[in-house]
Amino acid sequence: MTQRIIVINPKGGSGKTTVATNLAAYYAAQGLNTVMMDYDPQGSSTRWLKKRGPALPPIHGIAAFEKNSRVTRSFQLMLPTGTDRVVIDTPAALTGQEMPELVRGADAILVPVLPSDIDIHACSRCISDLLLVAKVRRSENRIGVIANRTRRNTLVLGTLLRFLGTIGVPIVATLRDSQNYLKSAEIGQGLHEMKSYVVKEEIDTWRPLIEWLDARIPTPAQALGGLEAAV
User: Fold this and answer.
1) What are the CA-CA distances from residue 130 to residues 102, 170, 175 (Å)?
2) Are 47 and 159 in contact (CB under 8 A)?
C-alpha cells in the first residue's frame, strides 16, 4: 500500500529537506517505488533529485510548488501507478490554516526540530497547530518529532528532550550533527547510499525512525477507509 509521509515545520532551517531526501533515498534503495513531492518554493528537494546519477535507484519527483496552467492541479500531483512511498517536503513559513490540506491523508507526520530555544518554541507552535487546527488526533499516533543536528551530553539537548517529553508526542529519532548530511546534499545521495563505513554512526540513528514509520504502513482496510472518507 502507498504510504504518505510528510515532513513539516514552519520554522526555516529545521532540516526538513535533509530528512525528506534521506528518507526518499532510503526507500528507493530498498527497491520501493518512491515519489518525492516538493512543496517548498525554494525547490531544494527538486534540485537534490537532479543531482542524482543514473546509476542510483530512481526517485520520481513532483515539483508541487510549481503552478502549471496547462494541466489541472490533481493531474500535476498524480502519483505514478504502483507508488509505494510518498515523501512530502513542505515550505517554511507555513501557516496553521494551510496545514489541514497538506496533512490530510498523511500516514505519518514528521516534525524535525533543532536543539535551540527558538526552535523548541517553533516546534511547540507547529504541534499545537497540527492538533488544534489540522485536527490530527493524538490517538492516531501519526505525529513524530525528530531531534535534529544534536550533540551528545549538551545542555540544550537536555532541554529539548525534556520539552518533548511534556507534549505527549514521541521522539522517533535523534539525529546527530554531522558533515555527512552536507555531503549527501551535494552529491544527490542519501546516507544509506553512501559508503557504510563512513556513515555508520548516522545510519544507526535512523533505525528507530524507520521502525516507527514501518509500523504506520496502512493496511488495505485502512486505505479503503481513507478513500471512502475522501469521497
Assistant:
1) 11, 14, 23
2) no
**DSSP string over 81-117:** TT--EEEEE--SS--GGGHHHHHTT-SEEEEEE-SSH
pLDDT at 227 (0 to 100): 41
Q: What is the spatial distance between Cα 47 and Cα 29, in angstroms, rounded to a whole number?
A: 19
If one counts the domains in the chain, the total is: 1
Cβ-in-10-Å burial (0-12, 13-18, 19+) of 66 comes to: exposed
> Domain containing 55 — which CATH number?
3.40.50.300
DSSP letters for 33-93: -EEEEE--TT-HHHHHHHH--TTSPP-EEE-TTS--TTS-HHHHTPPPTT--EEEEE--SS
The domain of 52 spans: 3-230
State the amino acid at position 174 in one-letter form.
T
**DSSP structural state of residue 32:** -
Which of 23-37, 66-80, 124-138 shows the highest mean pLDDT?
23-37
List the one residue out of 99, 58, 102 whose CA is nearest residue 80: 58
C-alpha cell at 16: 526538513
pTM value > 0.85: yes
**147: closest CA among 119, 125, 167?**
119
The per-residue pLDDT for 231 is 35
Residue of 139, 141, 212 whose CA lies nearest to 174: 212
Is it the case that residue 138 has pLDDT exceeding 80? yes
